[in-house]
Design a protein that fits this description.
Keywords: Oxidoreductase. By secondary structure, the protein is mainly beta. The chain has a domain of 118 residues: Electron Transport, Fmn-binding Protein, Chain A (Pnp Oxidase, Chain A, Roll). It has three helices and twelve strands. Strand 4 and strand 5 form a beta hairpin. The protein is globular and about 45 Å long.
Length: 179
């Protein structure tokens, strides 16, 4: 029998307790470096408090747990942040390669009179034609520097076949998928 020596893991330091004098990366270099992480693009929708829908384009969406199904988004303070804080719910639509216009629409770059088509959910509409749609109930909101992580339980989801819209090096991309 062989005994293995395992060194104890260093204690984690909570984000809000990191010394302010800690060395941090140059903001410009960090932005250009993190842009090289290819991500999918999603639109987060939420009730606007007036019977309508408000949305925002994000690339900070991730699954956290399968049991129970849990996801997370990261948002800066603003209207979407406030509406999610007030309603306690949000929808996520993972965009397909044909939905670059949807991404631009929800960043405020609207062209003409076009408006997106929604799929009605239990509480939150999501975008028709998206690869995946999630309806989420917030279970925790964690402030981290200038963002809040909205961790949510998925109460309903569905998906379609297709190819994703991606973001890499600050540009849209459509991956070439093998048949």
């Amino acid at each position: 029998m062989t005994a293995a020596l395992v060194a104890p893991a260093p204690a984690a330091v909570p984000v809000d307790e990191v010394p302010s004098a800690a060395v941090v990366a140059d903001a410009t270099q960090f932005r250009s470096s993190v842009a090289l992480f290819a991500t999918g693009i999603a639109v987060v929708t939420m009730p606007d408090g007036k019977g309508g829908v408000h949305g925002i384009t994000v690339n900070s969406f991730t699954s956290i747990s399968l049991d129970p199904p849990t996801v997370m988004i990261s948002l800066k303070a603003g209207r979407a942040h406030q509406l999610i804080s007030d309603s306690g719910c949000y929808g996520v639509s993972v965009l397909s390669e044909a939905q670059q216009g949807h991404s631009r629409y929800f960043t405020g770059k609207r062209e003409g009179e076009w408006t997106p088509e929604y799929v009605e959910g239990h509480r939150i509409p999501t975008l028709a034609g998206s690869l995946a749609r999630f309806e989420c109930e917030v279970v925790n909101a964690v402030p981290v520097n200038d963002h809040t992580l909205f961790i949510a339980r998925v109460v309903r989801c569905e998906s379609e076949t297709g190819s994703p819209l991606m973001f890499f090096a600050s540009n849209y991309h459509q991956p070439l998928l093998a048949p």
